[in-house]
Amino acid sequence: MISRLRGNLESKKPPFLLVDVNGVGYEVQVPMSTIYQLPECGNVITLLTHHHVREDAHILYGFYEERERALFRALIKISGVGPKLALTILSGMDTTAFLFCVEHRDIDTLVRLPGVGKKTAERLLVEMAGKLKAPYASDDGFSARLLEKPRKEANFKFAYEEAIAALIALGYKPQEATRAVSVVEEDGLVTQELIRRALQGMAKQ
Known about the structure:
Structural class: alpha+beta
Number of domains: 3
Oligomer: single chain
Largest sheet: 5 strands, mixed, barrel
């Protein structure tokens, strides 16, 4: 079982990475939350991995932080939530925002994620509610400690990351999208307004 990779980042084509480890190229699928934290291609990176085995394939999923991997592993244990949907959830919100959704039973925010319908969102809220303090939580804070942050901050993070993901979907590079949204970020702005301002800013460059 492959649990960690350390090697040269050869390419980034979200959600896929190519990591060269001593001459062996590993294709790894990662959430956008990990993409945002990676350096430019050509740098050495370390990824925590989950090795998913199917009858027809062996797939590696990579994560920048242990709490991302812990949440991913918890999600895929839920009926109807496979690795692809778990990756989508982590790409749409960070672990803090997700835990706030569970804590406050915020189904409206969850159903905004691609592929998450009302029934799936309800299942997530029910099954994850009892796991917030479970043993799979990592030592670095994936626990109830994250719930101490204000809900306002979690909502802002969600809008911020959703705006970046939308710009990437429009064809902008992750670095360009992150830079554009960071320049116009402001407390209280909804996703659509962040996207509009970011596009206006890039048009002036």
